Amino acid sequence: MFYDHHFIGMHWIWWIIIVAIILLAAFNVIPYRPKTDATEDALDILKKRFARGEIEREEFEERKKILKQNK
User: Fold this and answer.
1) pLDDT, tens only, 26-44
2) For residue 54, which phi and psi values (nearest 5 degrees)?
3) Are 38 and 32 in contact (CB under 8 A)?
4) How much is the pTM?
């Protein structure tokens, strides 16, 4: 029946591993995949950068004004 070496040995284990990896990737279970937050807009990002001290108040106000003009 199955004597053509398709189900003998560890050949079937490799198929299980491949299918498991595909399912994990498809359902976003693999932890190293970056998750994006689509609810955060540009103004929120600008406020966070200002709060962390990455940009000065003048630059914050200028960019905020530009963002509000574009809406």
Assistant:
1) 777 666 656 666 677 889 9
2) -75, -30
3) no
4) 0.46
> What is the pLDDT, as a whole number, of residue 13?
81
Q: Where are the chain's structural domains? A: 11-70
Q: Which amino acid is at 36?
A: T
d(CA 30, CA 22): 10
Handedness of CA 54, 60, 66, 68 (dihedral sign): positive
48 backbone dihedrals φ, ψ, rounded to 5°: -65, -40
Residue 2 · residue 8 · CB < 8 Å: yes
Candidate from 5-9, 10-14, 16-20, 29-33 with smallest mean pLDDT:
5-9
CA distances 70 to 43, 57, 65, Å, are 12, 20, 9
The whole-chain average pLDDT of the chain stands at: 80
